Amino acid sequence: TDGGGEWGAYDDQWVYLHEDHSDPTSSYSHSNGRWAKRHMKLGETIYNSENELTSYDSECRVIRKFRFPFTNRLDRYLPNVYISPDLGRRDVIVIMSTPEPWEVYQDFELIYYAKGAGPVMWQEWQYWKLKHESRFTHFGGSKVIPARLPCNPPR
After folding, report:
1. Are 28 and 54 a contacting pair, CB within 8 Å?
2. Does the N-terminal or the C-terminal CB of the chain have fewer CB atoms within 10 Å?
3. Which long-range contacts (CB under 8 A, 24 or more apart) does 114-123 make?
4. Average pLDDT value for residue range 113-139
């Protein structure tokens, strides 16, 4: 998939987030990319304790590598949500992603995925206040983020 500058994939067991290029000046990749189970129950959590992030500059040169454990939870299921004229009504799931340990970061992301469309909204929260929000709900228009191949393509 390539939504919002993200490169991902899925298999029978997992949904992977391999690399994120949503910032045009830099990007990062996860060491194993496991983002969510392909089938999860509401409230189910995965803890990716061995995750390592690799940060790249705009030329795909490694800036740094560091340990970055995180927890992802299937937070909500929202049936039949009106998203936009282009996407219409769709069932939506919300993944809550929290860097660990929570006590250090005090922030989380909410990623809204619409059935048959992929990610339709991303929110960044810090200290329970909305900090940033991006929506991906329309077809066409100009690209905001230049298309770029991943720095560390999945094998």
Report:
1. yes
2. C
3. 114/81, 114/83, 114/87, 114/90, 115/90, 115/91, 116/90, 117/83, 117/87, 117/90, 118/1, 118/3, 119/3, 119/4, 119/6, 120/83, 120/87, 120/92, 122/4
4. 90
Residue 120 predicted with pLDDT over 80? yes
Residues in the chain: 155
Q: Which residue has the higher pLDDT, 74 or 127?
A: 74
pLDDT band (50, 70, 90) for residue 141: low
Cis peptide bond upstream of 146, omega within 30: no
